[in-house]
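Render this sequence as a predicted structure.
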Amino acid sequence: MAFVGTRVVASRFFGAASKSSPARRARCLRSCPTVRRPALQTARHDGVALVQMSATSEPLTLSEASVEVVLDELRPYLMADGGNVSIVEIDGATVRLKLEGACGSCPSSTMTMKMGIEKRLRERIPEIESVVAVEDAGEQPSSEGVEQVLDQVRPFLKIAGGSIELVSMTNIDGPAPVVNLRLMGTGAAIQSVKVEISSRIRRRFPRIAQIVFT
């Protein structure tokens, strides 16, 4: 019965991450501008008139202002799922953007950028040759920071009859930091526990390349 209880506790806390991923992807796809087009009418967002999203819209000249006009058409759909997008740089015919909030960590962020935002920008501004997503390097990985993340998880692991400890961190200052963890107890057999712990660590430290459980 203890094992069954472990499954129940883990599914309530850790299982949400793995089981909700398909649902979250579905929400992102529904909100992606290529999937859910707005009605052909003028709306307003933050006091800025949004251009009608019509196939007959006049082409725009490439500039920061015109890119913002197109992004303003898309922002209501990104913001509906807790995300946003901002211009990082316009370099010749290349536009560099940063997905923010929930969109930045969403599993469908690549599709949102390529099939949604980039497609719409190139439709409205034919001069654009490519749209590049710029990733946030995030916080510098540290053993103290990883321990703080693990401290958030430990109470739930304890209820489920498990524990976790940081064994080591390698290549912290290099391009591909690695975190080695030891997961013990019955919780160690549940894959969703590992997925949730890895997800929490990577959300705080995007530079971490690999998380190894022993």
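Summary. The beta strands are 44-45, 48-49, 83-91, 94-101, 130-133, 162-170, 178-185, 210-213. The chain is about 45% helix and 20% strand.
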